[in-house]
Request: fold
Amino acid sequence: MIEDTRPLQGDNAESTGLPRPRRKGIYVLPNAITLAALFAGFYAIVMAMKGRFELAAIGIFVAAVLDSLDGRVARMTNSQSAFGEQMDSLCDMVSFGAAPALIIYIWALKDLGKAGWIPAFVYIAGAALRLARFNVNIGVVDKRFFQGLPSPAAAAMVMGLIWVMDDAGFKDAYRIDWLAWTAFGLTLFAGLSMVTNAPFYSFKVIGGKRTVPFVVIVAIALGIALIALDPPRVLFALFCAYGISGYAVYGWRKTKGKPTSVIAISTDEPDEKGLHP
Reply:
């Protein structure tokens, strides 16, 4: 952490008689990881402009991995800060909002005319709304779930389609009607899913301070082995399954008569007023 602890000097110090307030510093490690995620998103855009869509997809997946690390590192090193939270949201908007929308438009939607703008804009708008809602609801949402599809998972779904199809040899997707309309539908689904109230499991229990059964470690090992066999298809399948899981949980809760909202059910706190139907 870098901070200025110099005492107040000059006429101001003499006139007030108070020590100069300590300037808030910036923690290097978590913010460096956040900047690395931002660079991965920027790299993905550049690769897409050059027609290297496989590398663009990999760049977004790398950004997602880094994004999952910066917050954990900040908590582990007790280096959370308001600056880091704001920076993380702004970088997420680029890497998981603007970048996937632009890349999917270049890859498949640009020949659909103005119709191709619709899913790309819905996606980027959904990412902005989802991040804003996450920031204001962070204190009242059940930590076991995300309210709506997380933007990194939405980006992984969209970029996973590109990676799978590019790996299968489908080039110039914007010239293939069925593929362009598939990208249209998936991008629209991902964008709208980010602003739904469906509960998506957060996996925050795993990797935290709580212990987990041994079978969870075995499952993680098997998952890594499966991803190594065929990264594009396995990752795409996993994130598609995750993208549907929130609606499955919502439907299951609905049929069981259980609350479907992930907002805290207490209405005693003033900050929670207006968050409950």
User: Anything to note?
Assistant: The CA atoms of residues 148 and 194 lie 5 Å apart.
